[in-house]
Amino acid sequence: MSSIPLCRRYARLTTICFIGILKPMDTQSFLTRFRADLRKNSDAKTRESSRRYFKEAAVFYGVRSSHLSLLNHTYFKEISSLPKAEIFMLCEELFKSDISEEAFIAADWAYKVHRFYTVDDWNTFEHWVKNYINNWAKCDSLCNHAIGTLLDMYPSLMPRLKSWTSSNNRWVKRASAVTLIVPARQGKFLSDIFEIADILLLDPDDMVQKGYGWMLKEASKAHQNEVYEYVINHKATMPRTALRYAIEKMPPDLRAQAMKK
After folding, report:
1. Residues 57, 62, 66, 69: is their CA dihedral positive or negative?
2. DSSP state of 154
3. What's the farthest any 2 CA atoms get from each other in the chain?
4. Does the pTM of the predicted model rise above 0.85?
5. Chain segment 91-127, per-residue pLDDT in tens
6. What CATH number belongs to 133-261?
7. Could you give the C-alpha distances from 157 to 120, 167, 186, 190, in angstroms and in order?
């Protein structure tokens, strides 16, 4: 066999191995291209509409959801072969910007590699929650899927989730509840859900109340009787905001009974 075909095969193999893999020096150019595309697909009307939707100060490019979804898909294809740690580094850079669209995409990219999660990834996610989450949409985007899936894969992390209930940060406390949204919908972790609701029950923050009320609502889909009993037992002290969320999917007669003062 001649050396030329062998060299060509080696070159082809080398090319295949590195397709889609960003060298460290390419990270900034990738983010620059990505951000330029976000700006190009933004418009003032969408930006102002997004800002009005939030009580908290939030920064937006103003990219419509359909365009954002397309950019999300297109750019993730470029990095999908990267090791999880490098994708997490890109997510970190996106979270740092404080721009909402970048945070939404970072949360999704973090979830897209969930097959490779290890228990130690909790440290990364906790860092993001405590340092970069500053509105309910960022909180829910990251917690519902990425962190919720990690917890579902490693239930031994439950005590670490529960520790968030004692935080002075409203978004960390909300995260302790909304992380369980998908597992709750699947009928899982009911006793833990009630324990978190107990701790957050009298919290005066409406974002926290809505968070644990939503968690109870999702749990009621598989455990209606148990959640109804919980609500009835606590309705004298449970804030009405949380109560309304918790019973939203229950039959009308149960909702009416729960709302009686």
Report:
1. negative
2. -
3. 89
4. yes
5. 999 999 999 999 999 999 999 999 999 999 999 999 9
6. 1.25.10.90
7. 10, 17, 18, 15
